[in-house]
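User: quick one, sequence for these tokens?
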């Protein structure tokens, strides 16, 4: 357990986003006609998050300031609120982004500090036609992106790929595992016959809370809680049967160590740790060894344990989700005195594969 906590402490200090004054080289994929909206080839995989403010810089100096309004793993859309040199904001041009502190934005032109620059009347948005030098490797953009022509509509821009869903910070998910078998046992003489359920069900409903502030150290963690109803019925060869009913509540955290949990249309690995408490009711029904008395024994008690594992999540841009978790699960059941005044402690543990579906809103 100490090793697990140490790993969490060490990696929790890792930042998944760029700090203020950090720089990133980016390439403009698309621009609107007014150059007030643009798409670049950098996204969450490069440390950008929705709400970032940045300066766009070329060799000649600062050409624009903007705020990130939509983001995906490999692309982001920026709203430009200050244009210094609009002619540099063209398709295929390469420039540096410098992350800046957030600034207050106003749409009131009378409160603007400087006058906005406007694009020249050249009518082109191609960097090479304007004579702007490209960085090494930039000439392959057209082959890689192959984007269609309409650059005026923001909706068409963001529809090119998945977007961040950081604004959807609550997820509801469920897991289900049900078998409804029955069993019948008879002796070779046919004088004794026993019928019982041979079934198992696990119904789980949970919720997960994600942080909206993706520049904070805790942005890779989420809080998760769930309630699980588990019941198992078994019958042995001689007709004796056992039933275990368990109601369990769990609370814990998921650590998304390599990708932010707001990424869509991509598999997000995570490490899971949770603790659980609950109650148990266990019943035993005799078979042939009971000599036909059908004596039932039962006991109740409490449970506690933990789960630690590794899994993957997948989110769509609409908020639908799927998850798979392979964990090591351990549960201790402490029973009160049964009808024969005996007390028992039972330990259940081992690997599990959990699959679930959910919706994030």
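Assistant:
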């Amino acid at each position: 357990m100490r090793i697990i906590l140490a790993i969490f402490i060490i990696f929790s200090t890792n930042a998944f986003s760029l700090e203020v004054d950090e720089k990133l080289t980016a390439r403009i994929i698309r621009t609107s006609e007014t150059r007030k909206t643009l798409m670049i080839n950098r996204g969450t995989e490069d440390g950008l998050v929705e709400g970032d403010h940045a300066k766009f810089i070329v060799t000649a100096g600062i050409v624009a300031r903007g705020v990130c309004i939509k983001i995906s793993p490999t692309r982001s859309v920026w709203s430009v609120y200050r244009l210094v040199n609009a002619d540099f904001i063209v398709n295929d041009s390469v420039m540096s982004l410098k992350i800046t502190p957030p600034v207050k934005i106003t749409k009131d032109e009378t409160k603007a500090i400087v006058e906005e620059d406007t694009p020249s009347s050249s009518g082109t948005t191609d960097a090479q036609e304007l004579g702007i030098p490209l960085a090494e490797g930039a000439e392959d953009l057209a082959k890689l992106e192959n984007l269609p022509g309409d650059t005026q509509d923001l909706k068409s821009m963001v529809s090119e790929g998945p977007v961040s869903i950081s604004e959807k910070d609550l997820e509801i998910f469920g897991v289900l595992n049900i078998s409804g078998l029955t069993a019948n046992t008879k002796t070779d003489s046919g004088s004794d016959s026993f019928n019982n359920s041979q079934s198992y069900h696990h119904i789980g409903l949970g919720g997960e809370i994600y942080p909206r502030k993706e520049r904070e150290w805790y942005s890779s963690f989420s809080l998760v809680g769930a309630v699980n109803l588990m019941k198992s019925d078994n019958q042995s060869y001689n007709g004796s049967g056992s039933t275990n009913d368990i109601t369990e509540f769990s609370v814990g955290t998921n650590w998304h160590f390599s990708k932010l949990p707001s990424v869509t249309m991509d598999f997000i690995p995570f490490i899971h740790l949770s603790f659980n408490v609950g109650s148990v009711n266990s019943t035993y029904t005799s078979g042939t060894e009971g000599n036909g008395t059908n004596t039932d024994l039962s006991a109740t008690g409490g449970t506690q344990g933990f789960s630690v594992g590794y899994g993957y999540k997948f989110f769509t841009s609409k908020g639908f989700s799927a998850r798979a978790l392979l964990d090591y699960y351990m549960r201790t059941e402490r029973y009160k005195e049964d009808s024969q005044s005996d007390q028992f402690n039972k330990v259940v543990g081992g690997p599990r594969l959990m699959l679930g579906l959910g919706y994030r809103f």
